[in-house]
Amino acid sequence: MSLNTVAINQGMTRFDGHAEVWLFGYGSLIYKADFPFLARRPASISGWTRRFWQGSHDHRGTQEAPGRVATLAPAPGAVCHGMAYLVTPEEFAHLDYREKNGYLRLAICIAFDDGGSAEGLVYIAASDNAAFLGEAPDAAIAAQIAGASGPSGPNRDYLLALAQALRDMDKPDDHVFAIERHLARLG
Ligand code: SIN
């Protein structure tokens, strides 16, 4: 089952009237910026950790064989590294559509790696969304990813591109890298 979150997200008024909004990306938004942006800065958010716990029926899997993509799980004391983009509000029509399979916009404090911070938005797929899959052993997550593919391509490519982007940013992520190692063993 999937839930389309577009209408809910478009009802969010938190940044109404702002000419520019910072968006924090931690998954495919790190390596696939298919929208115009005014600035891009490596950044982090606190209290959340990246997990491949969200099902994907629309991008990296199908209804019959959902893939697994990144979401954030609450984790007091944790820091999640990613990429922040400064965008105009018009971009959220595309972004809401792209993230429609369970992700809700959340206002969050974004800390920039080169100093300073700003309040912005992040898309999070919480545990109560219809496509949420939740925790599983790394090997099982890798096996599911290996067998899934959707309109945006093989699920494996999502994981590998994210792992490479995090490596390029020098921001290792144990969870992502462990799944990457299991995927490599699966061939
Ligand atoms: C994100 O990248 O910030 C959200 C999850 C995704 O689109 O992969």
Walk me through what this model shows.
The chain has 187 residues and is α+β, with helices and mostly antiparallel strands. The chain has helices at residues 6-10, 28-31, 91-98, 138-146, 155-168, 174-186, and strands spanning 21-25, 39-56, 67-87, 103-112, 117-125, 149-150, 153-154. It has one domain: Gamma-glutamyl cyclotransferase-like (Hypothetical upf0131 protein ytfp), CATH 3.10.490. It is globular. The chain starts with 5 loop residues before the first helix and ends with a helix. Succinic acid is lined by residues 25-29, 69-70, 99, 123.
Tell me the strand order in the biggest sheet: 1-3-2-4-5
Instruction: Output the helix-strand order.
Output: HEHEEHEEHEEHH
Task: Using the alpha-carbon principal axes, give the shape.
Answer: globular
Enumerate how many helices there are, as a single number. 6
Helix content: 25-40%
Distance between the termini: 30 Å
Share in β-strands: 35-45%
Any idea how many domains?
A: 1
CATH level 3 topology:
Hypothetical upf0131 protein ytfp
The main sheet comes to: 5 strands, mixed, barrel
- What Rg, in angstroms, do the CA atoms define? 16 Å
Q: Provide mean pLDDT, rounded.
A: 96
